[in-house]
Every structure is written in C-alpha cells, then in structure tokens.
C-alpha cells in the first residue's frame, strides 16, 4: 500500500472553517481541475463487460472531499475505489446505491440509470463546498436537487466567497443540473470551462500547496 503524505480535503475544509479562513478561488479551481483530470481518465477506461464484446466506463461513485487526498506539493489524489461500479453508459438500470448521500446525484438517489454524470454532479458539490464551506449536512444536496438556481441566488447575497459567484456560477449550475442531459457531458468539458477562469491561468498546484502549508 502506497503511503501518501498530506491530508484529505474534508479535514482541510474543517480546519479552514475552524480558523475562519476562506478557500481562495484559485485553490478551489486548481483542485477541481485535477479532479476532472482524474475523472477524465477514469471515465474513458474501457474494460470488458461480463465476457461480452461490449465495454464499460468506470464510475467512481463516491466523489467527496474525504476521498480527495491533498499532498503538500499541491497534487490531488482520488482515492477509495472500493465501491466504484463499472456501469455501461446508457445502462437500463442501476444497482444498489452506495456512497455518500450528500454527494449523490438525483438519478442515483432515485435508483435511475446512472452514468458518468453522477461523478460530475458530485464534483460540482465538492466545488460548492470549497467555495462556501457549507457543512450543513443533507440540506445542501436536497436544496440543490430541488433548485440549483435558488441556492446560488441565495449565496449571491452573502459576503465573503460569494464575490466569486459571477465567475463560477455557470460551472456550478451546469455541473449541478438536475437532469444528467443538462450537465457537462464529460469531465474534460468541465475542466475546459474551469481553465477559462482567470484565476486558473498561472496558479495550479502551487496555489494548492501554499494553501496546504497555511493549514499545516
């Protein structure tokens, strides 16, 4: 088993909350870009399905801060593939629901056909957590599933990180769309939009590493 120096993102968010520190936008974006890169690779892996000629995409199924490990050099590792199902795109149905409720997409909660959009939705929740450090349990996911626009509008009136809203609202709204058809169709397309943000131009891992050092 590989030893990884660093800490999981959930612990870092908790530390930042305790110290009253906002996660800088460039840090949040840099973390999400690396997550999208990991998902891009994962979703494009093709493995044989049940001995047939067809192949399946690998869906992590439990994207959440506790499964994102931040190393001191700013590298982000996606961990815990224990429940990662191999679900062929446009499958006719899903199996038993596993994972972290707060980060599950509406279709997973409804036991509907599941594809890579479930991981993209969860990535959107991670971005939301980083920007707003919500920490309010299941109410966030329930509100988002009901109306993403409502929760974004409410946050736009809040102080602090909400000043970033005009730059990221489109990314959040698309990633958190209730219907998978309205979300990003791939992690690569979400990554492309994140890279368009001005803060993503020259920051990358250095921003994440610096933020990690302030919390260490």
Description:
By secondary structure, the protein is mainly α. Strands 1-4-5 form a three-stranded antiparallel sheet. A three-stranded antiparallel sheet has the order 2-3-6, with no helix packed on it. A hairpin with a 5-residue loop joins strand 4 and strand 5. The chain has helices at residues 9-19, 25-43, 106-109, 117-132, 138-146, 148-155, 165-175, 187-196, 205-215, and strands spanning 7-8, 47-48, 55-58, 68-70, 76-78, 86-87. It has one domain: Transferase(Phosphotransferase), domain 1. Mean pLDDT is 77; it is low at 88-92, 135-139 and 148-164. Helix 2 (25-43) packs antiparallel against helix 4, helix 2 crosses helix 9 (205-215) and helix 6 (148-155) packs antiparallel against helix 7.
Task: Set down the secondary structure blueprint.
Layout: E1 7-8, H1 9-19, H2 25-43, E2 47-48, E3 55-58, E4 68-70, E5 76-78, E6 86-87, H3 106-109, H4 117-132, H5 138-146, H6 148-155, H7 165-175, H8 187-196, H9 205-215
Antiparallel strand pairs: 1-4, 2-3, 3-6, 4-5
Q: Share of helix among residues?
A: 40-55%
Apparent shape: globular
CATH topology: Transferase(Phosphotransferase), domain 1
Classified by CATH, the class is Mainly Alpha
Q: Which radius of gyration do the C-alpha atoms yield?
A: 17 Å
Which spans have pLDDT < 50 for at least 5 consecutive residues?
88-92, 135-139, 148-164
Largest sheet: 3 strands, antiparallel
What is the string of helix and strand elements? EHHEEEEEHHHHHHH
- Mean pLDDT level: 77
Query: What is the structural class?
Result: mainly alpha
Strand content range: 5-15%
Tell me the number of strands: 6
Distance between the termini: 24 Å
